[in-house]
Design a protein that fits this description.
Elements lengths: L7 H50 L9
Length: about 70
């Protein structure tokens, strides 16, 4: 069922290592920073998509030639 790199025992070991290196007081700050980074990345992707949709949906301006 749990095949691959993210087996439950591996996750427990990773969490234990994080607790040893960062300590319990720094983990919430670390999680908050990662969460803000992911939200910012998603926001940038969404803004890029809406900007691209607006530029393709806008009618082209006519230019006059002399």
């Amino acid at each position: 069922m749990f095949e691959g790199i993210f087996q439950p025992m591996h996750l427990f070991v990773i969490i234990a290592i994080l607790l040893i290196f960062f300590g319990p007081s720094k983990l919430p700050l670390l999680g908050e920073g990662i969460g803000k980074g992911i939200r910012g990345f998603k926001k940038a992707l969404t803004e890029d998509d809406t900007t691209a949709a607006k530029t393709t949906a806008a009618p082209a301006e006519k230019t006059e030639t002399k």
